Amino acid sequence: MASKEGLQAARARGGNTRQLVHELLRTQIINLELEPGTALSENDLAAELSVSRTPVRESLILLTDEGLVDVYPQMGTFVARIKFSDIASAQFIREALEMAALREAVTRVTDRDVTDLRALLSAQRDAEGRADTEAFFQLDEEFHARLMAVSGHGDAWRVVGQAKAQLDRARRLSLPLTQQLHLLIRQHTDVVDRLEDRNLKRAEEALRRHLRLVLSDVEKIRARHPELFSEDDVPVRPRRETRRSPAQPR
Amino acid sequence: MASKEGLQAARARGGNTRQLVHELLRTQIINLELEPGTALSENDLAAELSVSRTPVRESLILLTDEGLVDVYPQMGTFVARIKFSDIASAQFIREALEMAALREAVTRVTDRDVTDLRALLSAQRDAEGRADTEAFFQLDEEFHARLMAVSGHGDAWRVVGQAKAQLDRARRLSLPLTQQLHLLIRQHTDVVDRLEDRNLKRAEEALRRHLRLVLSDVEKIRARHPELFSEDDVPVRPRRETRRSPAQPR
DNA sequence: CGTGGTCGACTACCATACAAGTGCACCAGC
DNA sequence: GCTGGTGCACTTGTATGGTAGTCGACCACG
After folding, report:
1. DSSP 3-state assignment of A39?
2. Rounded to whole angstroms, how far apart are CA atoms A207 and A95?
3. Cβ of A75 near strand D (distance < 7 A)
4. Is the CB of A43 under 7 A from strand C?
5. What is the pTM of this model?
6. Are strands B82-83 and B229-230 parallel, antiparallel or unpaired?
């Protein structure tokens, strides 16, 4: 993913800096290119991206609002550790919204919608064939978004997206589960099948099962990588990293 | 509500300026003290509040993210008009989350919870007696928040709160519905009763009816005050207000 | 009287400067 | 060697410049 160059190019072409920086950091955090606990100095980021502190700072404020970074005034800004309570909360929100949307989708779905969804499924199988997990997750996102659009509440995807960010961040730790992709696709297909049948109960079961599978993934990961999580009661105030060697390579 | 003085005092005592300005503007927008379409100049606000533009600007960015203001670069920042599609979206989100929470609340509710909820109901009747709608809406907020807390997903209230903001803003237009308060309290009581019985189906019906009543209020209001709403397809680019008379009183 | 171009005031965006606070490293004293 | 105090480097928060862009009023011109 283009980081510095891409931003500078986009900046030249137009589009305001704040949004670009925001999206850049957001994707980097979700993809774990920026690990939980990493310090995000406003000055350093500004220098690296060749912009001033202002848009960087404003981006960090937005990310704080999304729960992706923690700001400790006069101490530092850090990529948020994954709090398990946040995961649970995100799962609840996502599940509640997607399930509610599904219930309405069953009554509104058109043949055209089914066709579109199946096209996405096909693309997912394609990505699976190429073992392109990056593309797969992109398509996964599109699939769920489209599902909400079918319900007539596409606007609410924005909220799901924010909750999903927390889940995805944890899920990225388990990327080498390539065989899982097949299962996920089958579950997606299940949902579409039941939707096409207008079978509400079965559709609900299928989607619920799918969403819960994702959660159970996260729980497995937590057992393997406890250092990236923070316990719920102790906020884990990060300490400034001691820099004894002044000459660090870049 | 203290606006300038309160802010300056709080600022002196501590607490960062951005949050204070943010909360101030937020409540003023929701209470319609700042009407939809009003221009919010960074300079003017900064001057009025006796702070610099920075915290004001950062607050406006957050409010933009919440959908309470619209920023048109190089043109101006305006209190967002109430888009009906936003209302529908907010209603969907709120309903989905509160209903999902209720379903879990039925299985977890304790006698202590019921007691607490009934205490809130009592306070609401009190507020009704004093015809103190302001206090009532405060308690209404607490009631619903507590309901979610009972479900074990109190964290999700934050999201509901953002959706609710859109609804409340429209609902404020109908404040003089004093007799309505009684109905609202009865509905609240219904929910608690069914919750105490652990009767899921009845509890769902009661809460759904309650949430839908609020929505229907909004629809009535839209018929009466169309100027505060903006149609869905036309974003209504606001024009800069023509100031021919330079000496406006303050 | 109607119309097109210019100018000025205002906007948000970005950059920079200053202030207040924190923790760590270092060093004096024990 | 160990401990306590002091200064420095670094942090975010706030204030203030500077810039490009947009709109509306005004005026010259037809």
Report:
1. strand
2. 9
3. yes
4. no
5. 0.91
6. parallel
